[in-house]
């Protein structure tokens, strides 16, 4: 089925293209090819062995970075299709959004950043992701990196935060004074919905979060739990729990779709100089599919020039989501139960970082070469090496160099 695109969606035919021009593929468009390049990259495969929140110490079936990424891709595709956004671009951006994460989840990122700051530098996973796709992935004889389209590289940088042009002159080509397309804005919102619900699930299964505790502290959960208990009074608790989670996710996703559409409409309601044929409105009811006979044409340039990002939840549902996230921070992410992982991350990352700074001859030869050319500070070369590692590999390195 050919997707009906909103007039402000990114159109692949209007892509600003690749750094190194390549002939068109006979049956895949440029964003589909970029998606496939991401999936076939080493960095993508390594996500399987990188921690999201829980290490393998808890269970083999909790989320890791790869399965979290796939959940973000699934939810993002659903939302993008409803909003008339470019689903191929959205899927690519979702699949690549966590590719720059180091081992050990957020603790690993923090530890690496602290180590870098001791050398006057810093670590940022979006910037690292750009380095991966631009330079470290080597699959093609004609160029380094994956040679992704501009829109994918821009989305990697801009999906979750704004970068000040004065502080990041090397990113000037990504129009830092402009908002990213809605396809990129969507990834950050979906990421939050995906992990807020998934971490409740894994936290409950890990017995770190109790059912009563969640009901008492997460009002949206309590409301749906009362409904589910009435519907399925004899169902096992875990199945009731699942029924609640799917209702929460469905509510948040539905709200994100409708609120984003209405924010777009409100933002540009005075733009009435010309009319477009319009497109079906999001939702399933006959009424919601009414096609506007004559609605103002909003363009991608309008989205980029708008002072604010337009993808977001309504204030009421945003408050619900923020409450849930705060609950997770207090009772899961910052809980003493996960301290051993945090301590490990800090110890392993900082000791290996210091070792390779002092003894660069212990780095693999390709990194030794990079460290020698002095085009980059040694700390950056060591950081790149560590950031690319899986949890498994960094533990092996730790045993080898810092073990008893
Ligand atoms: Mg993520």
Keywords for this structure?
binds magnesium ion; 404 residues; mainly alpha; 17 helices; globular; single chain
**Helix/strand order, N-terminal first:** HHHHHHHHHHHEEHHHHHH
Mean pLDDT: 91
Structural class: mainly alpha
The count of strands amounts to 2
What's the overall geometry? globular
* Biggest β-sheet description: 2 strands, antiparallel
- What spatial order of strands do you see in the largest sheet? 1-2
Radius of gyration: 23 Å
Strand content range: under 5%
Poorly predicted segments: 272-278, 285-291
Bound molecules: magnesium ion
Report helical residue fraction.
55-70%
Alpha-carbon distance between the two ends = 60 Å
What would you say about this model in short?
This protein has 404 residues and is mostly helical. It has 17 helices and two strands.
